[in-house]
Amino acid sequence: MLPGELERGVCVIGTGFIGPVHVEALRRAGLFVRGVLGSSAARSNAAAAQLRVPMAYQSLEEVLADPLVFAVHVTTPNRHHFSAVEQLLAAGKHVMCEKPLAMNSTETAKLVELATKADVAAGVAYNVRYYPLCVEAKTRIANGELGLIAHLHGSYVQDWLLKPTDFNWRVTAEEGGPLRAVADIGTHWLDLVQYITGQKVEAVQGMLKTIHPVRRRPAGPVETFSGKIATKTSEANSALIDVAVDTEDCGSVMLKFSGGAIGSLWVSQATAGRKNCIRFEIGGTGGAVAWNSETPNELWLGARDKANEVLLKDPALLSSRASSLCSYPGGHNEGYPDTFKQLFADFYGAIRNGTYKTAPAFPTFADGHWELKICDAILKSHQRQGWETISS
Ligand code: SOE
Are the C-beta atoms of residues 149 and 284 closer than 8 Å to each other? Predict the structure, then answer.
């Protein structure tokens, strides 16, 4: 008998890059992680041993049938999201699914319908909302400190897919969906700025580019952000296989928002030196605000009639909601892993309080579905080189 083998808890499906991030954050949020399920028995066993969880599930069926699993996190490749979530909802499990919620808005519409019918919590891991200073920006805009929000721009850029020998399941539409950079990281930015401004995207005009129409992949599976592909030896090169790429490496999206603001998003997974950089700058009639995930504990506040300010994350200086997302005092930085801890604290707090249907503070399946509607519109606007509107 392993410690915890009879304890009620959470299962994490997916043992690549983000699955262990979820396991760690769940534990820091006070949840018991009962088990993991990988893409094979060997991966389940290895991950369970490495993460010190009692259950190494051998199949989704085993997870579904375990009465001691009350919630499941889905961190598999995108193409598996719909099938897994559909079955988990039917089994009455609470579900936290990684983004994008599914491969397209048809799938996400169905998941919203199923989640609405099921009496469970259903969330999407748009963790960037949980940086305290992003919430502070939201609060100050809601309080009118920036006046009427008129324009905003920003970017989400990385470099882990810069080289033609950088490979990941995301680069083919069959595995990851028809949009890659936009759906994978662009939706983080789109969810974030709509959350901060309170304005929904109404229309888009996208322009997408595939830098490497062919990538060279190794024979076996490749983990996100791995970058461990040996391409320095002829032997390594001979082990590489050419793969046709039908998704975008980068793109630009012009945006119209419901409150009258306009804006633009730049997204790229091929910007050398930008490892995981999210930026926004929001302009109102009374001020401006800017934030950069490379310095997440700083918020820039722009002013016309006085000196600009840089607010350092200090719960004593923040609004109540932003302060509630701080675990440490000023000068003790909070970052990427902390956002997952705070997201899961919200999610499981709502489960504990029974408010996951009436007042969910976490990103819901409806939010995830909305992001896929925007993605579908961006793809269509790129294909026909014209504006596409998005109906609520
Ligand atoms: C890869 O682009 C990735 O892991 C995304 O899938 C995550 O959502 C993002 O947080 C980091 O980069």
Answer: yes
* Distance between CA atoms of residues 390 and 182, nearest Å: 16
Mean pLDDT (whole number) for 156-179:
97
Position 220 in a domain? yes
**Does ligand 1 have an atom closer than 6 angstroms to the CB of 226?**
no
Is the minimum distance from the CB of 98 to ligand 1 under 6 angstroms?
no
CB of 136 closer than 6 angstroms to any ligand 1 atom: no
Same domain, 186 and 201: yes
Secondary structure (DSSP) of 54-78: SEEES-HHHHHH-TTEEEEEE-S-G
DSSP letters for 355-369 = -TTTS--S-BHHHHH
Distance from Cα 392 to the centre of ligand 1, integer Å: 27
Among the atoms of ligand 1, which is closest to the Cα of residue 181? 2
pLDDT at position 230 is 41
Predicted local distance difference test score (pLDDT) of residue 238:
58
List the strands of the sheet with 9-13, edge to edge.
55-57, 33-37, 9-13, 69-74, 94-97, 122-124
Same domain, residue pair 83 and 170 = no
